[in-house]
Amino acid sequence: MLLTTMKTLWPLLFFLAEAHGHAALRPNFVLLMADDLGIGDPGCYGNKTLRTPNIDALADAGAKLTQHLAASPLCTPSRAAFMTGRYPVRSGMASQSRVGVFIFSASSGGLPASETTFATLLRNQGYSTALIGKWHLGLHCDNSSDFCHHPLSHGFEYFHGLPLTNLRDCKAGAGSVFSSAVRLLALVPLQVTAVALATLAALGRLGLLRVPRPVFACLLLLAAAGLGALLGFLHFFRPLNCFLMTNREVTQQPLSYDNLTQRLTADAARFIRRNADAPFLLVVSYLQVHTALFSSKDFAGKSRHGAYGDAVEEMDWSVGQIMRVLQDVGVANNTLVYFTSDQGAHVEEVSATGEIHGGSNGIYKGGKGNSWEGGIRVPGLLRWPGVIPAGLQIGEPTSNMDVFPTVVKLAGSPLPDDRIIDGRDLMPLLRGTSPRSEHEFLFHYCNFYLSAVRWAPRNSTSVWKAFFFTPKFSPPGANGCFPTQVCLCYGRFVTRHDPPLLFDLSKDPRERTPVTPTSEPRFQEIVATMERAAERHVQTVRDVPDQFSLGNILWKPWLQTCCPSSSGLSCQCDREKQDTQESR
């Protein structure tokens, strides 16, 4: 009888042991993404004056990717690619116009429901999932209660942070990203109207022209309406767009920068502690170091690089706090930690007083908003003790899209088979089972437009990069597009190249000296190969709804999210302060 029972139970016990072993092998994931941090900012990438010991410790204890690339050089499309493992043009998250990111919380564009994020797949595998910090992938579709683009609609069980993005306009006295637009669309028409009124009045007094009173009245009303609209925009923009949410509820409107990094870091720590006994995914998406720059009193004025350096060093402190919590709860050795930036540093960021508010892209040309290496080559650090060798350095081309298949496979989930996944699993490189990247070709977009192709031939150490167009830097000799604050991707703002402008990044990472048919005998063959690869890639891109169409990026009052207790547009509340007091 006992023997029969054992024979019956043995397969079940074996199955349970196997299942337990499989579950134990699944790591936790902590994915840390800085905003606008340049590859030249962390100490582990060569900076000697910014103090980033906690970020540097990730490199010492794990792998440093030296050719890690953002799929787009702008916030919103880069984050869409990171979340989905797909070029943003495939999801409609790449703009065809001047506006390349979402600038209003009450616009209807966003990451489509048809897209699958790694958070969704991990949640299906039993992971607890959270996003803390910046989202910037949309909020609503048709009404202010549908939350169709919200993180909770894309696989995250918990969200605490900023649904839009940190802007200069969010912080009193930090300036405005709309200065040029205000001058063009408001101040110039007001000046024209004022001049017209003065001219007509003068002509009337001189008896040279009889102007009916209704004309004066209409011009005055027009001027008053324009002035009212301008003042209303400036007054309401901050509370309507700069607010914090916890899940689907507004908790601070407008947001306060007081100890903001500390508050979000503490919440990340609480999430880790709550879920220490089960697999979890935590994405910490820092608001720093996007302008408006901010830091707490413990860091303000302490760095050698002004407000920018203070913000970097505070973010580094936050990384250290998160790593300490992982250690405290005993999961540090079973957690894959990844650190990166959404794109390169914003080199055009200079304050009204002339202080540089953008970071360093090291030796690389260009920055945020363009496909020169400074715009797309970003930090890439991965730590997983016992699996990823400490001090490993990888120079192969990799992408922030690679995070998707890497974490999904490690979590035990199959990849979606109904769509193209452009990312590639990083684990063969990280474990040393493959010496070469699975990316033979990578495609660099400037918003919607394919601007360059990268080719790492299997039988060569060369890394070729061919530009179909490049931005026109302004003023001449500058390393960016200062009049427009970020380089634009079309028309008179770019220079087109036929044949493509070709560089060998293995010999010229600064992209200073283009390869020519004279300097490279295989020039025509190389260019033809890259053009064919681009053609094959473009044929795989399908028409999808444009999330950056005019109708999708405009402010829509019926989509506006406000505090539950607010009425009209007077959106003000501070549940963050109340909740903090209650949690003490």
UniProtKB/TrEMBL annotation:
<dbReference type="InterPro" id="IPR000917">
    <property type="entry name" value="Sulfatase_N"/>
</dbReference>
<keyword id="KW-0472">Membrane</keyword>
<dbReference type="Pfam" id="PF14707">
    <property type="entry name" value="Sulfatase_C"/>
</dbReference>
<dbReference type="InterPro" id="IPR050738">
    <property type="entry name" value="Sulfatase"/>
</dbReference>
<dbReference type="InterPro" id="IPR017850">
    <property type="entry name" value="Alkaline_phosphatase_core_sf"/>
</dbReference>
<keyword id="KW-0812">Transmembrane</keyword>
<feature type="transmembrane region" description="Helical">
    <location>
        <begin position="184"/>
        <end position="203"/>
    </location>
</feature>
<keyword id="KW-1133">Transmembrane helix</keyword>
<keyword id="KW-0106">Calcium</keyword>
<feature type="signal peptide">
    <location>
        <begin position="1"/>
        <end position="24"/>
    </location>
</feature>
<dbReference type="GO" id="GO:0046872">
    <property type="term" value="F:metal ion binding"/>
</dbReference>
<dbReference type="InterPro" id="IPR024607">
    <property type="entry name" value="Sulfatase_CS"/>
</dbReference>
<dbReference type="Pfam" id="PF00884">
    <property type="entry name" value="Sulfatase"/>
</dbReference>
<keyword id="KW-0732">Signal</keyword>
<feature type="domain" description="Sulfatase N-terminal">
    <location>
        <begin position="27"/>
        <end position="412"/>
    </location>
</feature>
<feature type="transmembrane region" description="Helical">
    <location>
        <begin position="215"/>
        <end position="237"/>
    </location>
</feature>
<dbReference type="GO" id="GO:0005783">
    <property type="term" value="C:endoplasmic reticulum"/>
</dbReference>
<keyword id="KW-0479">Metal-binding</keyword>
<comment type="similarity">
    <text>Belongs to the sulfatase family.</text>
</comment>
<dbReference type="GO" id="GO:0004065">
    <property type="term" value="F:arylsulfatase activity"/>
</dbReference>
<keyword id="KW-0378">Hydrolase</keyword>
<protein>
    <submittedName>
        <fullName>Steroid sulfatase</fullName>
    </submittedName>
</protein>
